[in-house]
Amino acid sequence: QITFGAAIAACGDGLQWRASLHLLAHREQLALDVTSYNAAIAKCGMAGGWNVSLAILDKVMHGSLEPIVSSYNSLSTACQSGKQWRLCLEVLTQIAKRNYQPDLISYALAIGACEEGQQWQGALLLLENMHKHHICPDIVAYNACIGACRRGQQWVRD
């Protein structure tokens, strides 16, 4: 499993995401785990294939494997790479619907999506939710929130 996971990641690093998909197609013979799928989701997204990343996660959800929070975070990353900010926000909603607790990365990606979509109110709400769930925002989350406010022209005026 580690070898195939590494092969999938290497294919993605070389922007050979089709080769990653070929390995995934033989999952039953290869006994791949959810980490291998996460690597393919992330690498397809980096190559601009956010829709392929979405299809891979859908396949995991309807197969014998259970996606984990990092699976959704990989999809969020893919959505951001593909300028799909609304879908990135939907991914955060799906994490909660599956009774998972979004983590720092989940929130930072969603706040980044709010920045991309100029949704400053959403960014502030997500930052508030982080505090409510005892997740300490990092500099990435704060910078994305500030960026969303800047893009929405919501700065303090004298």
Question: In words, what does this structure look like?
Answer:
- By secondary structure, this protein is mostly helical.
- The protein has helices spanning 2-13, 17-25, 27-30, 34-46, 50-61, 69-81, 85-97, 104-116, 120-132, 139-151.
- The mean pLDDT is 78.
Question: Any key phrases for this structure?
Answer:
158 residues, mainly alpha, 73% helix
Describe, in short, the structure shown.
It contains ten helices and no strands. The protein has helices spanning 2-13, 17-25, 27-30, 34-46, 50-61, 69-81, 85-97, 104-116, 120-132, 139-151.
Please write out the topology:
Elements: H1 2-13, H2 17-25, H3 27-30, H4 34-46, H5 50-61, H6 69-81, H7 85-97, H8 104-116, H9 120-132, H10 139-151
* Series of secondary-structure elements, N-terminal to C-terminal: HHHHHHHHHH
Distance N terminus to C terminus? Answer: 59 Å
Average pLDDT works out at: 78
Give the overall silhouette.
globular
Number of DSSP E strands: 0
* Content-based structural category: mainly alpha
Specify the number of helices: 10
Give the fraction of residues assigned to helices.
over 70%
Describe the main β-sheet briefly: none
